[in-house]
Amino acid sequence: MSKQFGSSESRSFSGKRLARFFLLLANARQFSKCLFIAALATGSAHHSWAEDQDKLDDLTIEQLMNIEVTSVSKKAQKLSDSPAAVFVLTNEDIRRSGATSIPEALRMVPGLNVARIDANKWAVSARGFNGRFANKLLVLVDGRAVYSPSFSGVYWESRDVMLEDLERIEVIRGPGATLWGANAVNGVINIITRHAADTQGVLLSAIVGDEEQGHGGVRIGAALGENGYGRAYVKGFKRDDFVRANGNDAGDTWEMLEGGFRADYQPSHKDSYTLQGDFQHGDIDQELLIADLTPPYMALLDSRTDVEGWNILGRWQHTSSANSEFTLKGYFDSNDRNEGIFNSSDKTVDIDFQHLLALAQRHVVVWGFGYRNTETTISGAVLINPGSKIRDDELFNFFIQDEIDLIENKLSLTLGAKVEHNDYTGAEIQPSARLMWSPANGHKAWFSVSQAVRTASRVEQDLNILTSVIPPMAPFVPFPVALVVTGNDDYDSEELTAWEAGYRITPLNTLSLDMTIFYNDYDQLRSTEAGSSVLAGSFPSLYLEQTLEFDNQLSGETYGFEVAAVWQATRVWRLDIGYSFLESDFNNQSPQDKVQNGIAPRHQVSLRSLFDVADNLDFDIWVRYVDEASAIDGRAFALQKIDSYLATDLRLAWRPSSEFELALVGQNIFDPQHAEYIQESFTIPTEVERGVYVKAVWQPNY
Amino acid sequence: MIRVGINFAIPWLLLLGILFSPMSRSQPQDKVEEYNLKAALVYNFARFSQWPENSFSSADTPVALCVQGDQSLIKSFGLLAKKTLFGRPVSIVVAETLVNPESCNVIFVTGVQRQGLPRLFAAVADQPILTIGEMNGFTDIGGMILFTTVHERLKFSVNLENTEAGGISLSSRLLKLAHVIEGQETQR
């Protein structure tokens, strides 16, 4: 029951997928007129189909079998049918972007802000609230949540997959809570790997470069008996340091070893079974500045973080009729981090059931329930009074959604709600209403209003963290002041009401546009309130402990719009353009409120040119502009400005045969280094460097 | 600020260069776009297939050829609507999700997305509907004909168990060109 948008077990916002179809009954004359108009509109861009058809008309089937084909990009007119702001990255998009990790690939998605903190850390968020612990974005890998229950956020560096085996990444901006549950406040990212039948044979991949120092990956896929397919992979990599603003190495190299498998078994068209699992092991270097009670009240720690994780997932999908289908899914996920100053271990068990039911032609009902148990263990030097080390939490959920076809193929309404009970904040209800309207072929409009919550994480309820120490200011304050951010048992969920509207249009055969506007109204946002101040320690090392307690006193609103355009300019040249505008406004009351949320970039542009120089030669350009922003500096209790930047990636790929591809990629090619983000605490500001690498992929025909 | 200006200019100049260069690229004349060829082949598959006698309600009922996939496929499949099959007109439906798959005589499922496929097969199983697909394993789960691409040429395999279950017989001319799967052989 992974709640994926399009794939095997989709229950997208559109069970029946709102059944937009284009019926061309055998009225040949009317049809040719259509085509004629389309041909006029697109000029010479797509002349070849008619020539092809004429040529093919006279051939026998035996002759047809001997013709060579060129495969064109299938994305030109591909638009999702969901009444939500959806963007899909395909395997091909990722390959041609030159991205070597999932967060880097996510830079292609309009409305997402991806900022690299250092060589091994990313801040990724949709529609504002970015940060290393961006907590309003839910991320799933094949239906397995990789959102950390301890810290509310995603450790992108230890949640990697084999990129060649990715089917696609679906990004839903805006609340997806009705289907996916809590923390899908500003968006959901579904990372979907390929079915094992689609990864048969051997694939070898290798990268050598200056920043991407070395990557190696092997995947082997084979048939497993009758109706079964399997694959296994191992990959490893080593990445170089980035730099500080002054050009010195940032001490943030990292290396990982990962592996996994997937087996798919389909004994009949009624049943399909999937079993998959992965492991990761990594050494991640980082230089941290941590607060210290003795002069100079700050200590530099050269730390090597040891990350270790594994997971296993099973899924059974059963189709009893054309109108009924259910999925049962269960997984176990374990993720350990030993950061030196801070150790955490998360273990999650999750079981979900989901049932899709088409009723009376007009209704598609999806309902389901689930149970999740998380065990979080936290310890470490920056913790003061960590309370109980281990905590066990349970989560129950039930949801139902009905998609009602109001006017066939024209208008549909989707109503749904999810009820959830968690041990931190109790029961939560998250409803949504969505309307999809197709006024004409090639035009789709949608409207939605929905509510979502971001539930408390462990750090907000029961941990006390020493974030900084202010040196004594003689003679008024003769002691150092230790600022301790303190969890609060009453810390509640953050709430959002979101209003969204979107319009998708295909004005030309070769051009598609997808536009979204939104207004988000947040309440009970996280704030910190000054609590007690007590004299602690023993003479002569006395200090004043000032607590800052988590609370929900902040509110705010964000609004903006996002545009995605795909233009297949000629048969061999495609342009993908993404633009997003975002404005945020918070009702800051106290000085601490001002440093709760950084200022997101107002304008972001991504422009990609994909040019097939020849059938076996690609030349791709990717230009990104990110407006100035600010990040939270937890040590200084201030916002740090981050300058706008323009980054350009180039990729040249050559396929001497259908089995082998050699790519030369330059990243940030016109810029030796630039800052993209600063982590909220501990990490020293680090800049992203220019990088060049060569990638070889060998995939013998199978 | 100057640095920013230069950074801005170079990629845009490059882009302008690219903008005009593709126009001059010569097209390989002997190659055909994949879906144009698939359209021609799907039409031929239908031509060399035989449906049970009661499959069409009247003498002039069109042969319904349904394509599951995105709307851009209309440009490849639309022209088939000008043609005839066994003296009947041909009607073309292109839809991302086929609403009434039972009303089709031929269904071509494009793409490699498995989502919705079990429900499609639940609706059309054991009926005289010629099912054609292009995803790996299509003929394992009920599909009749599977396209594959080998060295830029299209091949197809036929699962005879599934065609027989649907009551469709394929001519020997078609079977001669196909990789034939009988019984439960595993298909790649």
What is the structure about, briefly put?
The complex is a heterodimer of chains A (702) and B (188). Chain A is mainly beta and 702 residues long. Chain A has seven helices and 37 strands.
Explain the layout of strands and helices.
The complex is a heterodimer of chains A (702) and B (188).
Chain A: E1 21-24, H1 28-42, H2 48-57, H3 61-64, E2 69-70, E3 85-90, H4 91-97, H5 102-105, E4 112-118, E5 121-126, E6 137-141, E7 144-145, E8 166-173, H6 177-180, E9 187-193, E10 201-209, E11 214-223, E12 228-239, E13 254-265, E14 271-291, E15 298-321, E16 324-338, E17 343-359, E18 363-379, E19 390-407, E20 411-422, E21 426-440, E22 443-454, H7 458-462, E23 464-470, E24 481-486, E25 494-508, E26 511-536, E27 543-570, E28 573-586, E29 603-614, E30 617-626, E31 629-633, E32 638-642, E33 645-657, E34 660-667, E35 673-675, E36 687-689, E37 691-698
Parallel strand pairs in A: 6-9, 24-27
Antiparallel strand pairs in A: 3-8, 4-5, 6-7, 8-9, 10-11, 10-37, 11-12, 12-13, 13-14, 14-15, 15-16, 16-17, 17-18, 18-19, 19-20, 20-21, 21-22, 22-25, 23-24, 25-26, 26-27, 27-28, 28-29, 29-30, 30-33, 31-32, 33-34, 34-37, 35-36
Chain B: H1 2-20, E1 32-33, H2 34-47, E2 49-50, E3 63-68, H3 74-77, E4 84-85, E5 88-95, E6 106-109, H4 117-124, E7 130-133, E8 145-150, E9 153-159, H5 160-166, E10 169-170, H6 172-177, E11 179-181
Parallel strand pairs in B: 3-5, 3-6, 6-7, 7-8, 9-11
Antiparallel strand pairs in B: 2-10, 4-5, 8-9
Describe what this molecule looks like in 3D:
The complex is a heterodimer of chains A (702) and B (188). Chain A is mainly beta and 702 residues long. Chain A has one domain: Maltoporin, Chain A (Beta Barrel). In chain A, 7% of the residues lie in helices and 58% in strands. Chain A has 7 helices and 37 strands. In chain A, the strands form 5 sheets. Chain A has a 22-stranded antiparallel barrel. In chain A, strand 11 (214-223) and strand 12 (228-239) form a beta hairpin. In chain B, a hairpin with a 2-residue loop joins strand 4 and strand 5 (88-95). Chain B has a single domain (32-181), classed as Response regulator (Rossmann fold), CATH 3.40.50.2300. Chain B is globular and about 45 Å long. Residues 1-6 and 19-29 of chain B have low confidence and may be disordered. Chain B has 6 helices and 11 strands. Chain B is an alpha/beta fold. In chain B, the strands form 2 sheets. An 8-stranded mixed β-sheet of chain B has the order 4-5-3-6-7-8-9-11. In chain B, strands 2-10 form a two-stranded antiparallel sheet. The longest helix of chain B is centred in the first third of the chain and has 19 residues, at 2-20. Classes of the chains: A mainly beta (702), B alpha/beta (188). Chains A and B meet through strand 1, helix 1, helix 2, helix 3 and strand 2 of A and helix 1, strand 1, helix 2, helix 3 and strand 5 of B.
